[in-house]
Write a structure and sequence with these properties.
By secondary structure, this protein is α+β, with helices and mostly antiparallel strands. The chain is built from three helices and 22 strands. The strands form five sheets. It has a six-stranded antiparallel beta barrel with strand order 2-11-14-13-12-15. A hairpin with a 3-residue loop joins strand 18 and strand 19. The protein is elongated. 20% of the residues are buried.
């Protein structure tokens, strides 16, 4: 009895295993491949429909819904500090000529080449023989023959060539008994001092309503900023003459660099500098406080007069002439022509790019910047 029951149970288990195996084989052999085939067919049909039978949606007409609006601003009260900044370098002071004050003959030379002199020292003495006055003949003696006039000692007038500045004699074209004429420059003295020299774009001269007497100088990696005195600004023929004097050889290279405006000033004696050092020079061109200002991008014209583009209540734009004052390279003073209530185009129409003449010196960095300057 027990044995028969065990055989029956085993047979049931084997029968269940056989049925499961058959089901798995049917799934793998028939059902799953069929599903994959159906999926591939559906995808293929969908692709064919998309490729050949899809209807593209009608393109809707694209109509503009906005308009370009020019940025506008109003003049505002502000302060403009008109400081012109330029780069420069330290140089030895140029030689100064000692000129002949009187025609005559060199009687004595008191100095030698390379000697150190102070301002006012005598370099050489000049003599000039005066024209002798004719002596009256003496009365005849008993012999009846007139006697020769007594000999007259020559008379001379004297003058001196003096040093116009302290320094070292670097040129001495004088010898005793040499004939000289008024205005000759046979002696040159190089001062024991230094200058700071740089160039400034001619357009920046508009910013200097008056020429300052001095400048603020900062030496790169040098001492604290100091005031540089005896400021000179030379342009045109004056700059060319200065360059020729510094390079008497007349080399063509020197002539090519004279078409510019030079700025020079004297370094104080107590400041230690060396030739070739780089420097930043700040020229103080004035301050305008509590004045109407506009960005330079809004003004066509940068000096004395200009034009702004004012927007009316109806949106129409009109050109309006204005009188200009100081500028710092970013803002410009509007002296006449607009008020705080006017609406002005922030950018001059058509001034998308700056030309080479529309560049300015950044008062903070000293770098040349070219941007939209508005004409």
């Amino acid at each position: 009895m027990g044995k028969a029951t065990l055989i029956s149970e085993n047979s049931s288990r084997l029968g269940g295993v056989d049925r499961m195996g058959i089901g798995v084989r049917v799934w793998k052999s028939w059902i799953w491949p069929g599903i994959k085939i159906a999926l591939v067919a559906v995808i293929a049909v969908a692709l064919v429909k998309i490729a050949f039978f899809s209807s593209a949606p009608e393109e809707s007409a694209a109509l503009p819904t906005g308009q370009v609006v020019e940025p506008v601003i109003s003049p505002v009260l502000g302060t403009i500090t008109n400081d012109v900044t330029l780069t420069a370098n330290v140089q030895e002071s140029p030689a100064v000529d000692a000129k002949v004050p009187m025609m005559g003959t060199i009687d004595t030379v008191y100095v030698t080449q390379g000697a150190r002199v102070e301002a006012g020292d005598v370099i050489a003495a000049i003599r000039n023989e005066k024209t002798p006055t004719a002596a009256a003949p003496s009365s005849p003696e008993a012999s009846g023959e007139p006697q020769a006039a007594p000999a007259v000692e020559p008379e001379y007038e004297w003058n001196e060539i003096v040093a116009p500045t302290a320094g070292t004699i670097t040129k001495l074209n004088l010898i005793e008994q040499q004939q000289v004429t008024v205005g000759e420059a046979p002696v040159s003295i190089t001062p024991a001092s230094f200058i700071v020299k740089g160039t400034i774009p001619p357009a920046q001269l508009y910013r200097l309503a008056t020429t300052p007497a001095d400048a603020q100088v900062t030496i790169t990696a040098g001492p604290a900023p100091f005031t540089c005195t005896e400021l000179r600004i030379a342009s045109g023929a004056a700059a060319k003459s200065s360059s020729a004097a510094e390079d008497p050889s007349g080399a063509s290279g020197a002539a090519e660099t004279t078409d510019t405006t030079t700025v020079t000033c004297k370094v104080p004696a107590e400041v230690t500098v060396f030739p070739g050092l780089e420097a930043n020079v700040v020229l103080h061109g004035g301050v305008a406080e509590n004045v109407l200002t506009l960005p330079i991008t809004a003004v066509k014209g940068q000096a004395e007069t200009g034009v702004v583009f004012v927007q009316g209540a109806d949106g129409a734009i009109e050109e309006r002439p204005v009188k200009l004052g100081l500028t710092d390279g970013t803002l410009v003073q509007i002296a006449e022509g607009v008020t705080e209530t006017d609406i002005v185009l922030e950018f001059v129409p058509g001034a998308d790019q700056a030309s080479p003449d529309e560049c300015y010196i950044d008062p903070m960095s000293g770098a040349e910047i070219c941007g939209m300057l508005g004409g």
